[in-house]
Amino acid sequence: MTDQAISTTKVGAGKTAHEIITPPNKLKAKVKPLRQRPGQPAEDPVARAERELKKLEPQFEIWMEKDIKRLKSGWDTFSEAVEGGASVNSELVADMFHAAHDLKGQAATFGQPYIASVAASMCMILENESALSIVPKILIEQHVNAVIAIYREREKSHANAIAFKLSDELSVATKAFIVASTPAE
Amino acid sequence: MNSIDLSALRCLVVDDNSHMRRIVRMLLHGYGIREVIEAEDGASGLEMFQTNVPDFVIVDWAMPIFNGLELTRMLRNTESSINPYVPIIMITGHSDKKRVVEARDAGITEFVCKPLSAKALYQRIVLSVVSPRPFIRTKTFFGPDRRRFTGVSNFSGEERRGNDATDAQFTQIDSLIQDQLEKTDG
Q1: Å from B149 to nearest chain A CA?
Q2: pLDDT at B100 (0 to 100)
Q3: What is the CA radius of gyration of chain B?
Q4: What is the ipTM of this complex?
C-alpha cells in the first residue's frame, strides 16, 4: 500500500464545473505480472478459470431444471391470477420475470443458448409495461412452453434446428408487439 | 493478453442467485483469487463491504432489498463508505445501451454482460485494478470517469460519457496495462 495523497483538480465553472480526483492506486501494489517458471508452460489464468468452470458442469442440469420449474411456477401463478380477473402489471409478472431473467443470463453458460434466447425474448415482454398491456397471454405461455420443450428435447437429433426456429419465431413475434406498443415520436 | 497475478486481492460478490455466485467464485479461484466473500442481497453486501474492506466488488443488477445500482450509489457515498473509490464490476443480463448508461451514471467501474465469459471478467478485473480511471465529481455525479479512452482535459460538461469497450479496444487496454505494469516494476 502507498501513502500517496488523493489529488484533486477543479476544472471549469458554472454548469461544467467538476473535480477530477485521482486516488492513489493502492491495488497496483498487490498485483504483479505472472512470471513463467523455467521449463514450465506459461500460466494462463483465463484457461485455468475455464477449467474451474468446467468442474461445475455436472451441476448445470440440476440448476437448469430448478430455474425452469421456477419459470413454470411463475407462469401458473400469473395465469391463475389473470383468470381470476387480476390486471396484468409488472408486479404480477415479477416471479416469472426473475426466472426468465436468470435463464437469459445463465442458460448459455449451462450449454443451452436457445433457452437463453427464448428467455431474452420473454424478458423483452415482461419488463416492458406497455408491451405487457397488449401482448396476448398465449405468447407468454408459448415462451414458457418453448423453454420446457427445448430443454426436454435437447438430446434428440435435429433438436438444435427446431430450437433455433422456435426461438427465432418467438423473437420475431415479440419484436412486432414491442414495436406496436412503442408510441410514435 | 497480459497475465497478472491477482492472488493477493480480496473480492466481494453480491448476487441473489446462488448459481451465479458459485460460477463467479470458481472463475475468481481460477484467476488465483482465494479470498472471495459472498452476499446474497444489497443490504448484506453493504454490511460485508464495510466490515471486510474488499479490493473490488462484483455486483448483479437485479437483487432484493436494494439492487446493484442502489448498492453502488451507497458504496460511492463519500460520507459513509469505507472506500468510495473501490472498483465495482457489474455482471448483468441487461445489455441494452440505456442500462449501460444508467450503470455508469450510478458509478459502476466496468460492465460485463451475460453470458459470462472467463476472458471478459478477467479483462475487466485487470483493467480496474491495474489502470483505474480518475474519478469525477459534479453536482449530480461521483464515480469513475465515464469516458474510457479520451483525455480528461477534453471534458466539457457534466453529462459527457465515453463509448463502450469493444474487442478491438481491448488491444489498446492490453498495451495500457503493460505500460502500467512496467511502471510498477520500475
Answers
A1: 15
A2: 87
A3: 16
A4: 0.83
